[in-house]
Amino acid sequence: MLNKKYLMVPGPTPVPERVLNAMNVPMINHRGVAYEGLFKSVVQDLKKVFNTQADILLYPAAGTGAMEASIVNLFSAGDKVLVVSIGVFGDRLAEIATSYGLDVEKLSFEPGQAIAAEKLAMRLQADINKEIKGILLTHNETSTGVTNDIENVIKVCGQHPALKVVDAVSALGAIPMQMDKWGIDVVFTGSQKALMIPPGIGLVAFGARAWAAYAQSTLPKYYWDAQKVKKSLEKWQNPYTPPVSLIFGLRESLNMIFEEGLENIAKRHELLAKAVRAAVKALGLELLADESVSSSVVTAIKAPANVSAKDIQKHLREVYGITVAGGQKTLEGKIFRIGHLGYASMADVFVVISMLEMTLQTLGVAVNLGAGVKAAQEVFLQAQ
Ligand SMILES: Cc1ncc(COP(=O)(O)O)c(C=O)c1O
């Protein structure tokens, strides 16, 4: 049987045809007028997605590059940072900071939980001498399908002077972000998620307090040096050869984002997530995260007893052509994750849910065929 492919992982996400076509153009000079016009328009529009007046620094890099860039440009060896981790990507921030010799304190929460804001508030109140220089946070923890209420988390930081740094790699563009209004100093993201273009661009929004910290920072930096990027930005250029094709793609994906509207995009993601949750619950499966904190861009589902999540993934992929994500680190084999991020629609939900029903039945899990589909249909019909 023809095995048409469906990519339903939380990044890289499917790239719309419009974006693919926009990238399929001859190369241009990255030091020429045409590029400068293109890059200027992209940077100006990105500010509207971050909701910021901060500088938008573009790095040819994975999201992890943007994480590293954020850290090396803000701190010096020995600086104390508080990493608030709710999963694999929060832990990664701690690993990067540790590798640069920062004094890392971790405030961790169990997989599936969001940040308990009062615990963070208590820790900061105890920091009488204001030793903590940075608070590193994750907006949407992709590994567990949990979204932190970043607005509230920043609020409980109160007047503490630490820099607030937010990983919005799997959030920005799909989950609302008000960088300036909420008082965040650095927000970073990657291209391969809600921005709907292929992997390869890391973006760091670097605010005024971040620049003040940069002036004091002595961590070694060359490729990631924010000042070099800013200097080139003044000419609408990049210090090193940029991924020109991706920037053509980003121009088109931003067009699509503004045509749909950021608010509508956020609502679409919420609706898709609601339908997926209703469907998997109707199939008797358990969600990893409590629904009050569950992500609108990825749903983490516990494998039923006696079935490995890996077998579910394998069957979906090999028999139906659907790729969903697995669990990472301690959750490997225990959960699978359905991505509904970026270029995702109602029809995608039915593809994955109906095939999940057949997969479960084939693997010997008692399911009521059609129950998941029906639950999703009800969610969508109610929303119409
Ligand atoms: C929340 C979050 N942070 C950081 C990253 C790292 O991005 P990359 O894999 O592009 O390095 C990811 C990737 O999935 C992510 O979801």
Notes on the protein architecture:
The protein has helices at 17-23, 33-50, 63-72, 88-99, 117-125, 150-156, 179-182, 208-216, 226-233, 244-260, 262-282, 309-320, 346-362, 371-383; strands spanning 6-8, 55-60, 80-85, 103-108, 132-138, 140-141, 146-147, 163-167, 186-190, 201-206, 286-287, 298-302, 322-326, 335-339. It is an alpha/beta fold. It folds into 2 domains: 17-258, Aspartate Aminotransferase, domain 2, CATH 3.40.640; 262-383, Aspartate Aminotransferase, domain 1 (Alpha-Beta Complex), CATH 3.90.1150. The strands form 3 sheets. It has a 7-stranded mixed sheet with strand order 2-10-9-8-5-3-4, sandwiched between helices. Strands 1-13-14-12-11 form a 5-stranded mixed sheet. It has a two-stranded antiparallel sheet with strand order 6-7. Helix 4 links the parallel strand 3 (80-85) and strand 4. The longest helix has 21 residues, at 262-282. It is globular, with a radius of gyration of 21 Å. 47% of the residues are buried. The model has no long low-confidence stretch (mean pLDDT 98). Bound molecules: pyridoxal-5'-phosphate (PLP).
Descriptors for this entry?
384 residues; alpha/beta; Aspartate Aminotransferase, domain 2; Aspartate Aminotransferase, domain 1; 7-stranded mixed β-sheet; 5-stranded mixed β-sheet; binds pyridoxal-5'-phosphate
- Strand arrangement within the widest β-sheet reads 2-10-9-8-5-3-4
Mean of pLDDT = 98
Q: In the CATH scheme, what's the topology name of the largest domain?
A: Aspartate Aminotransferase, domain 2
What Rg is obtained from the alpha carbons, in whole angstroms?
Answer: 21 Å
CATH structural architecture of the largest domain: 3-Layer(aba) Sandwich
Could you give a short account of the major beta sheet? 7 strands, mixed
